[in-house]
């Protein structure tokens, strides 16, 4: 499925023009990250003097390759001086290769462009969502979570939003070391006791363009994505929030009392990326130093080696310092093997629907009624209008494909004027199709899914009366239009409807497993609301983010794993407030093992074509915040466990010791990857029988847990022992899981199951994925 994007400000044309004018000398060099691992100094010892010494050591090191310290100073545009040790520099390929051979260097990798994980033509922020997720009374206590700090790596923040007001908030936590970075614009930028910090990082973005290209130095969000995601994670309560009168209610983030900090690492799309590795690493390095508790990261790229992946490296250093890192899974579904952000120390989130929709119906003259969704701000009179298929609306000099997609300029005004046009989803933005219809004189649009999008319909803030319908309904509609002598219909105004079913089901765009880097680590880990989410928005753009849209809104809808990620970040923040002594892996385990795999009809969760979904889509299931607060047992992991995992992948002790910057050597008997104490089980090549070990820690009341197994088809699963008795909090118990194919002919596709430990009150679920 395509990743649908909005257009971006025309200012980017200046960037591209500047890029084309680059001299051959500049074009011969590319930007690279040289990564040494961690620092010998502790994070709390990262004084200004210490950081200056680190910068100087980077100049000395690179100077030894380039011939002088002065050349190194010209080449380096970032020195990572706090938690992460390394630098970013403009180098020739041969220079980068030579540096990579140095024994003190862990990796040298390109300054890659990552993408924001939004489908960009746009569920209600936070967990209240008109009753979608019932709340524990604990979550709603006054000031609960006020000492938790949630950071967001994204496009920054719109500080004037009501979601970041600081009414009633006490002093900023003393642990906070961050800043509210000044900007070079005439528009003032202010932080407060809610929005306690904001920084921007764009030197990596500049290096991919031209060091002299204009890029605004400001943490202000001019695209809307960062404001949307940060308010979803931890926006303050805003009564009466709405978008064009739809979805009206109390807006609030997942952890509404938490403090927030914005790290702007993403900029207008160029050269296939928006968030460049060098800037992402700089954002991580600062956030770790500043003192955040949770990092929400709604961006990513194609999966690569962990030690050449800026998100994997940055998140490892964050987790090492007790920070839970939550990342989006990506929007490249429903194709298998597309999931990104797959390192085991990351909590990776897919996207699914909720039980609220913005229903807008198509009424046909033959009395057929088709249900769609929309957030159009304008309406049609309730009378019949002529309907026209995109093929019939085609301009004579344009292709059928262009007309079918309603590409701008592909529709013939003489054929379209005064009619409702049917457009097919794909290629260009959903809302852009409506603008193409409007420009051609059409009075309305019916957007029909292509086959790959199935039943996933999204409510967008269209610029004309429009509605979005499923693939099967689109087939039926086109059949009517082509067979009727005079096809007529009209579109009703949208209405907010609750208790829609089935819900949740998986979004078609949500990236799927298996994990292509380490298949033994099941990804994504979990799914959360990510379709038609309403949250705070920038004041710089209209709700479609397209240049022609002059409307301005306080709240907007968006869809993508970018939207599901901060839902889970908010839950992680609540758990950090409730259990401040829990490790990031304990928080992650609580969220994963408490998830559900049933929808609101008590049937197994489905995908967008209403076929049964599986753990490659949803991981352990749909997030349940209230269950996560008291999970009973957790699968805990330490930094050393992750280092042992890297050893099992073939990294040597020298590399890993540098990665950690503390004494470490790989175990004499390497860890089996399957034995990493992960809250899920994945076997990618089962031959014979495989046994693996897991350890669970009691974080609830004393009790005895019994195991129940739902075996994958054709696979036998045995667990020993079958009972675990816990006498106190913090007690740990091991168990062994053995998997074996029941017969030879089960080889081929993955099969799925799960094991559940329960004491009658808690249900600790572990998904299983096996390929024989």
From TrEMBL:
It holds the Pfam family PA. InterPro entries: PA_dom_sf (IPR046450), PA_domain (IPR003137), Peptidase_S8/S53_dom (IPR000209), Peptidase_S8/S53_dom_sf (IPR036852), Peptidase_S8_Ser-AS (IPR023828), Peptidase_S8_subtilisin-rel (IPR015500), Peptidases_S8_3 (IPR034197), S8pro/Inhibitor_I9 (IPR010259). Keywords: Glycoprotein, Hydrolase, Protease, Serine protease, Signal. Residues 31-117 form the Inhibitor I9 domain. Residues 406-477 form the PA domain. Residues 145-607 form the Peptidase S8/S53 domain. Residues 1-27 form the signal peptide. This is Subtilisin-like protease SBT5.4. It comes from Elaeis guineensis var. tenera. The gene is LOC105060808.
């Amino acid at each position: 499925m395509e990743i649908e994007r909005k257009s971006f400000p025309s200012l980017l044309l200046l960037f591209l023009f500047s890029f084309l004018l680059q001299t051959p000398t500049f074009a011969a060099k590319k930007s690279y990250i040289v990564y040494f691992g961690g620092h010998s100094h502790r994070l709390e010892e990262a004084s200004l003097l210490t950081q200056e010494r680190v910068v100087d050591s980077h100049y000395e090191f690179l100077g030894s390759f380039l011939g002088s310290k002065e050349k190194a100073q010209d080449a380096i545009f970032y020195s990572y001086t706090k938690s992460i040790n390394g630098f970013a520099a403009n180098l020739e390929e041969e220079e980068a290769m030579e540096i990579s051979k140095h024994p003190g260097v862990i990796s040298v990798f390109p300054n890659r462009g990552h993408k924001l994980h939004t489908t960009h033509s746009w569920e209600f922020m936070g967990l209240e969502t008109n009753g979608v997720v019932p709340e524990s009374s604990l979550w709603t206590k006054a000031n609960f979570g006020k000492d938790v700090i949630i950071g967001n790596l994204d496009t920054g923040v719109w500080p004037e939003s009501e979601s970041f007001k600081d009414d009633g908030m006490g002093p900023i936590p003393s642990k906070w070391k961050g800043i509210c970075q000044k900007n070079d614009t005439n528009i003032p930028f202010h932080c407060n006791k809610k929005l306690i910090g904001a920084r921007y990082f764009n030197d990596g973005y500049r290096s991919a363009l031209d060091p002299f290209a204009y890029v605004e130095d400001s943490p202000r969000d001019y695209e809307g994505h960062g404001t949307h995601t940060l308010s979803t994670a931890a926006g303050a309560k805003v009564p009466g929030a709405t978008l064009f009168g739809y979805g009206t209610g109390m807006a609030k983030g997942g952890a509404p009392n938490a403090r927030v900090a914005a790290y702007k690492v993403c900029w207008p799309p160029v050269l296939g990326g928006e968030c460049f590795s060098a800037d992402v690493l700089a954002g991580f390095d600062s956030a770790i130093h500043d003192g955040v508790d949770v990092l929400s990261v709604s961006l990513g790229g194609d999966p690569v080696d962990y030690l050449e992946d800026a998100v994997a490296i940055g998140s490892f250093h964050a987790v090492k310092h007790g920070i839970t890192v939550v990342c989006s899974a990506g929007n490249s579904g429903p194709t298998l093997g597309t999931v990104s952000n797959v390192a085991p120390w990351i909590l990776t989130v897919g996207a699914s629907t909720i039980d609220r929709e913005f229903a807008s119906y198509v009424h046909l003259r033959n009395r057929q009624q088709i249900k769609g969704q929309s957030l159009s701000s304008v309406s049609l009179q309730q009378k019949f209008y002529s309907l026209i298929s995109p093929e019939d609306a085609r301009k004579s000099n344009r292709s059928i494909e262009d007309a079918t997609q309603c590409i701008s300029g592909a529709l013939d005004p003489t054929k379209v004027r005064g009619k409702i046009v049917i457009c097919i989803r794909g290629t260009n933005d959903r809302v852009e199709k409506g603008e193409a219809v409007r420009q051609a004189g059409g009075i309305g649009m019916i957007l029909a899914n292509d086959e790959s999008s199935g039943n996933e319909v999204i409510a967008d803030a269209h610029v004309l009366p429009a509605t979005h319908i499923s693939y099967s309904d689109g087939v039926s509609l086109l059949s009517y239009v082509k067979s009727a002598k005079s096809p007529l219909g009209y579109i009703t105004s949208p209405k907010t409807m609750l208790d829609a079913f089935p819900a949740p089901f998986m979004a078609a765009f949500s990236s799927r497993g298996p994990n292509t880097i380490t298949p033994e680590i099941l990804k994504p880990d979990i799914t959360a609301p990510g379709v038609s989410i309403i949250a705070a928005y920038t004041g710089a753009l209209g709700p479609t983010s397209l240049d022609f849209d002059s409307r301005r809104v306080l709240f907007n809808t968006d869809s993508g794993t970018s939207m599901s990620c901060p839902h889970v970040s908010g839950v992680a923040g609540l758990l950090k407030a409730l259990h401040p002594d829990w490790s990031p892996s304990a928080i992650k385990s609580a969220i994963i093992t408490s998830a559900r795999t049933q929808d609101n009809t008590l049937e197994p969760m489905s995908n967008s074509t209403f076929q049964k979904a599986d753990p490659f889509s949803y991981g352990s299931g749909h997030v349940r915040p209230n269950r996560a607060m008291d999970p009973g047992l957790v699968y805990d992991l330490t930094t050393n466990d992750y280092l042992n995992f890297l050893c099992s992948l073939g990294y040597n002790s020298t590399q890993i010791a540098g990665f950690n910057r503390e004494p470490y050597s790989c175990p004499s008997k390497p860890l089996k990857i399957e034995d990493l104490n992960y809250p899920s089980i994945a076997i990618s090549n089962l031959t014979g029988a495989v046994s693996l070990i897991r350890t669970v820690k009691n974080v609830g009341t004393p009790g005895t847990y019994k195991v129940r197994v739902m075996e994958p088809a054709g696979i036998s699963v045995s667990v020993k022992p079958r009972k675990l008795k816990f006498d106190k909090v913090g007690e740990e118990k091991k168990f062994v899981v053995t998997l074996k194919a029941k017969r030879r002919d089960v080889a081929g596709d993955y099969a799925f199951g799960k094991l559940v430990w329960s004491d009658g009150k808690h249900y600790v679920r572990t998904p299983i994925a096996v390929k024989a």
